[in-house]
């Protein structure tokens, strides 16, 4: 997967917008970051998952997903190794991340429900 493919998938999420934070692109729903690109380098993206989701994605594709470093990773922030990533699983991770940051009213507006642990 390329950076442009990750970006396109993130922006296909209803109401998602691209912004910038700490000199790298991020993607937001209702002002809240659910994904980003370029950290730790151009080969990586990031999705904001729950810890349960993080464990599940890592179990399914350990060559693609790993916890972000330090406290971020312990909160569910998960790095995505783009060169090894397949579109289907990244789309699922991006959808879960967007649902995670949306509040109940936003999820209803976006027709997004709280994700389940089944991936």
Write a brief caption for the model.
The protein is α+β, with helices and mostly antiparallel strands. The protein has helices at residues 3-11, 51-60, 70-74, 87-101, 104-109, and strands spanning 17-21, 24-29, 32-37, 44-48, 65-67, 77-81.
Largest sheet: 6 strands, antiparallel
Sheet/helix structural class? alpha+beta
Shape: globular
Compute the number of structural domains: 1
Radius of gyration: 13 Å
Distance between the termini: 19 Å
Low-confidence stretches: 113-117
User: Could you give the order of strands across the largest sheet?
Assistant: 1-2-3-4-6-5
Number of strands: 6
> Under CATH, the topology is which?
Aspartate Aminotransferase, domain 1
In N-to-C order, the SSE pattern is: HEEEEHEHEHH
CATH class division: Alpha Beta
Helix content: 25-40%
Report the β-strand fraction as a percent range: 25-35%
Number of helices: 5
- CATH architecture descriptor name: Alpha-Beta Complex
Average pLDDT level: 90
């Amino acid at each position: 997967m390329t950076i442009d493919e990750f970006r396109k998938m993130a922006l296909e999420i209803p109401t998602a917008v691209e912004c910038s934070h700490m000199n790298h692109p991020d993607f937001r729903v209702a002002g809240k970051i659910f994904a980003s690109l370029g950290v730790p380098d151009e080969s990586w993206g990031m999705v904001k998952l729950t810890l349960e989701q993080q464990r599940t994605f890592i179990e399914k594709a350990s060559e693609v997903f790993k916890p972000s470093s330090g406290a971020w990773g312990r909160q569910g922030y998960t790095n995505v190794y783009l060169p090894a990533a397949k579109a289907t699983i990244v789309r699922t991770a991006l959808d879960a991340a967007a649902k995670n940051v949306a509040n109940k009213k936003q999820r209803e507006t976006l027709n997004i429900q709280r994700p389940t642990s089944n991936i």
